[in-house]
Amino acid sequence: MEGMKLVKIDKSIYEDYKIDVIFDAYKWDPQVGDVNTVSEYVLLITEEKAASLKRDAENLTKETHMIQEAMLKNLNFSKEVGLSKKMKKYFMKQTKYNRDKNVSLMRYDFHPTTKGFRISEVNSDVPGGLAEATILGHIAKKYLGYGEVKYDIAEILYDSFIKINPELKAVSFVHATSYSDDRQVMQYIGDYFESKGIKSFYNDPTALTFKDETPFLGKERIDGIFRFYPLEWYENLPRKYKWHHYFHTNAISCNHPVNLLSQSKRIPVIWNKLDIDLTTWKSLLPHTVDPKVFFKDESLRKTHILKPNLGRVGEGVMIDGVISKVDKEGIMKAAKKFPLNWVAQEKFESVPLEVDGKLYHLCIGVFTVKDKCAGFYGRISTKPRIDEHAVDIPILVVKGDL
Predict the structure, then answer these.
(1) CATH of 4-264+352-398, one of 3.40.50.2000, 3.40.462.10, 3.40.50.300, 3.40.50.1760
(2) Which residue among 33, 122, 208, 271 is buried most deeply as judged by most CB within 10 Å?
C-alpha cells in the first residue's frame, strides 16, 4: 500500500534502542513467551496518509458518540449487543450523563487491505498503547534521525481534564493492579499528570468509596477517574464494593461507563434499528452479522470469521490457517451455544508490508480524545491475525513520498 514503509533500526544500535524503550517508554512487557515484542522496525507514513487516518478516525468518533447516545435511549437493544441484565439496569438509571463533563478516549484499529484501509473494531472502553503512541516514536526518531511524532497523547489527555476542571488536584488511575502491562499504561499517564502538579493514585476499582457522588481514596477527594479496568469485569466484584457508583460520579471520567455501549462488536447487528447516520462506520467496517445467520448460510461460512463480542487484543478470532483445528472447533462450538457473545464478520484480505525479504501484517491504532485525533499506535505480525503476540512498532510521519 502506498504511503507506508517499514525501515529497520541498525543492528549495532538496536539493543540500546530496546533498553531505552523498556525504561523510558514504559515497555515493561518486552517479551510475551518467547516472542520479543519490541520491533526492530519503524513504520513510516506520509503526511497525506496520516491526514487520511486522522479524518477517518475523527468522523468515526462523531458517529460512535451517536451510537452511545442512541443506545442510552434504546436500552431494549442491550441484550442483542451482549450486555448483561445487571449492566442494563445500571445504564437505565443513567440520567445525568454529560459527555462534555467527561473525557472520551478511543482507539480505532485500521488494517491495510486489498480494498484500502478497513477497521476491525473500536476500543472505546479501555484502549491501551498510549506510551507506544508517543514516547516510542520519539525514541525511534532519536535513533533514526528523522520523522515526526504528530501528537502527544498524555498532554492531550491532561489538557482535556484541565479544560473541564481547572482546579483539578487528584486523579485515580483505576486498573488491575496485579498486571504490570496494565500498570505501565497508567504509570505513563499518571507520571505526566504528576509533572503538572496533579496527585496521581494507582488503585484497583474496589479502593474508591463514594459520598454524594464524590469519589474518595481514603480521605483524599478524587477529582478525576482514569479507568483502565474493563467495565464488564466489574460484574465479577463482590456487591459490597458498590461499583455502580462509577456510573453516577461527579468526578471527570475517562472513560465513563457509557463508552462500553460502543465497545460491543455486535453493534452493527442493530445499526438499522438505531436510526442514525453511520456513513463512515458502514464504509470502513466489513459486513457483520449475528452468528445465527452465519451458521444458517453456507456462503457466509466461507467469507466470514467469528470474533468474540468483547474481545480486546485479537484473542479468539477464528481465521483459517492461523489457528489450530482444535481452537477452531472450540470457537465454533462456543458461538453456536452462546451466539450473543460472538459476531460473524467478513474476512478482509490483509496487504502485508515487505522488508528484508519478510512479510509483515500491520495494524494502525488511531487514538481520538474527545472528537480529535490524538496519536498513532502500530503493531505488526507475520500472521494476518493481530493478537497478543503482535509486536509493537513506532510510527513516524514523514514529508514527501515513500
Answers:
(1) 3.40.50.1760
(2) 122
DSSP H or E run through 123: strand 116-123
Q: Are 137 and 272 in contact (CB under 8 A)?
A: no
Whole-angstrom Cα distance, residue 273 to residue 2?
A: 37
Give 91's contacts (C-beta < 8 A, 6+ positions apart). 71, 72, 75, 78, 83, 247, 257, 258, 261
Question: What whole-number distance in Å separates Cα of residue 120 and Cα of residue 355?
Answer: 24
| Reported pTM | 0.95
Domain ranges of the chain: 4-264+352-398, 287-346
